Amino acid sequence: MLNLPTDYSEQLDDLNLRALWGPQLKSLMPGIRPQPGTQGAHWKYRDVRPQLLRATELTTAENAERRVLALVNPGFGAMPVSAATPTIFLGLQIILPGEWAPKHRHSPTAARIIVEGEGAYTTVENSKVRMVEGDVVLTPTYHWHEHGHEGKEPMVWLDVLDIPITVAVGEAAFEPGGGVVTGTNQNDKSATVYTCPGIIPYRSPSEKRPEYPMFRYEWKRVRAALDTVAAYAGRDEPIHMMYVNPETGENLLKPFDFSARLLRPGETVEPKITSATSALLVQGGKGESEIDGKVFSWEQRDSLAVPCFSRVRHTNTSSSAPAYLLQVDDAPLMHKLGYYQEV
Ligand SMILES: [Fe+2]
Questions:
Q1: Which of 26, 79, 245, 284 is the most exposed place for a label (fewest CB within 10 A)?
Q2: pTM, whole model, 2 decimals?
Q3: pLDDT range class, residue 183, cuts 50, 70, 90
Q4: Which domains, and CATH codes, for the chain?
């Protein structure tokens, strides 16, 4: 507290002013490194899944519009937005056979990573995008989208959004689609146009490259690429591949990078210490991640959150099978803002 004279404080209040010196200023920037409060965190899918199923008993999709359990970082306390890191919202969403979520769009940019099940689809603008376990499906900022489920079992995916950013900058917006059914049901271009790495439709030098040319990144193909790289790489080379826009080479969503790691049996990797925060989804295998000295043992479908500037070690604890981690991080955002550092 600044112990200001009462009349002075009142005058400042009347003028919409605030004294910002001493401890007040210090509380805004408390140390030489950011102290966002994010903790290393782990959500075991086997603990979350029963709660998702219970949600289907407690509310219909029609009433809820969507049933999502947000993954809340335990370090945040009473944050205005439930989020896994200061920039990344993660939510596990369950959808039952026959359910449908109406067309809508929003300012938060989004991706869904399919965790369990098959038979659901997302329509993004005019593309009907199939969703299979492990796939990354993009619903970028202000793109119309809806989803439905034509399969026979419950389906779960991990929603990844930049909601904390849109809220922080006062840009959070959601627009319902007015009941208009989207779509000409074209196949997503990952199935037709972008089937060969390095080959894209002809563009003259004056033509603009599309910002979001394809919406689906099939896990089956990504895993095959990781396996192939692992077969030829030297034993000491970490296997870490990045998702990119096939037309521009840029990251998938403006604030976030998506990448995938293969950990060989028994392998430990130590990623660079950076100012990016990240989230991980275990796409296969078993292992453990040490985050700032705390060890989290994970298995397929688990999620983790990693604070900025943390010291991390990922280990595949199996002696025979590879492990796969899908990573989302906010390095592009931090870089654009000039905050990105590697230690
Ligand atoms: Fe949405």
A1: 26
A2: 0.93
A3: low
A4: 41-337 (2.60.120.10)
